[in-house]
Every structure is written in C-alpha cells, then in structure tokens.
C-alpha cells in the first residue's frame, strides 16, 4: 500500500493591517474627574518589525547580546486645539504633546484668569492676568513670572508701567 502524501497546506492569506490613527479629535476622561475635549495625536506609534538579514541574525546570536529594551507603548496625548476642565479650572487653547503651549486662556476657580502665550505649561510671552477684584497685569511673561515690559493696574484703577523682573516691578512709574 502506497502512502499518500498530504496536500501541502498554504498559509492563510494575510489580513490587511488595520490602519492606526495617528491623530484625531475626541474626549478624554481622567481618574480625577477631569475631561479634555479636542485634538490629539499618538506618541510612539507601533512600528512594523524590522526585516533582518539572516546572516546578521546569526552574528547577533553568536555575540550573546541581551535583547533590546521593549519600545515605549503608544500613548494618545492632547495636541492641537482643545478644552481641559478639572472642577472649576478650565484651559481652552493650544496643546503640544500634552503641554499647554501656544496661545490659550486658563480660568481659575477664584475667577482669576490668564490669557496669552504659553510654553511648557507656563505663562511665557505676551499675556494678561486678571484678578476678580479688578487688578490686571498686561505684559511680558517668562517661565510663569512677570518679566519685561508691562502694565499693572491696581484695584483702585492706578496704572503702573515699566520693567518687571522675576515677578515684581522695580522702577515702575505710576500713571494717574
């Protein structure tokens, strides 16, 4: 009796890869109860496995090298225009890779608000900070502090203009 050879099975056809969204719009919910609604992007998208030359693979195995560390997992981050709310705190403006960066307005629970330029989650550039009692600073900011030319109006309406340094205003002149 002759043995029959089993027909050679062909591998199943590869299913087309599901495209990974690298950016989009949506709503994020945080464990603290905060929300973000707006644009996002995907950091560290998964890469296809590298095509390796068999000769190179043998050389690597011979060297007994430890495997490379695993890649950082993909993460969706706030990026573009959006609104972040946490309780009575609201930021509406631009984001860059999960940081407030560009222009935007942050309103505090107290009623105070900053509207202007941001860099790395700090007031940086031209901006205006207003207090609920009527005080206001309009001018330059650096790393979250009043720095450079600016105008401060006190609660009585007096206007102080001049050079601010590290959050305070030496050499200001009162303009009644």
UniProtKB/TrEMBL annotation:
Annotated segments matching region Disordered: 1-24, 39-83
UniProt cross-references to InterPro entries, sorted A to Z: MORN, MORN_repeat_protein
Pfam families found in the cross-reference section: MORN (PF02493)
Compositionally biased region (Basic and acidic residues): 1-11, 52-66
UniProt keyword Ribosomal protein, yes or no: no
Annotated Gene Ontology cellular component terms: membrane
Keywords annotated in UniProt: Repeat
Protein name stated in the entry: Uncharacterized protein
Species in which this protein is naturally found: Edaphochlamys debaryana
């Amino acid at each position: 009796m002759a043995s029959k050879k089993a027909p050679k099975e062909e591998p199943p056809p590869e299913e087309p890869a599901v495209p990974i969204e690298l950016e989009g719009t949506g709503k994020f919910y945080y464990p603290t109860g905060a929300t973000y609604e707006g644009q996002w992007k995907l950091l560290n998208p998964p890469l296809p496995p590298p095509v390796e030359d068999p000769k190179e693979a043998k050389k690597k195995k011979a060297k007994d090298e430890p495997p490379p560390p695993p890649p950082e997992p993909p993460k969706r981050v706030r990026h573009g225009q959006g609104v972040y709310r946490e309780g009575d705190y609201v930021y509406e403006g631009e984001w860059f890779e999960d940081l407030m960066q560009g222009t935007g307005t942050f309103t505090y629970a107290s009623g105070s608000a900053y509207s202007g330029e941001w860099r790395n989650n700090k007031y940086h550039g031209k901006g205006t900070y207003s207090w609920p009692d009527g005080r206001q600073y309009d001018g330059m900011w650096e790393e979250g502090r009043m720095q450079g030319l600016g105008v401060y109006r006190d609660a009585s309406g007096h206007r102080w203009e001049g050079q601010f340094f590290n959050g305070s205003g030496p050499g200001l002149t009162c303009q009644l």
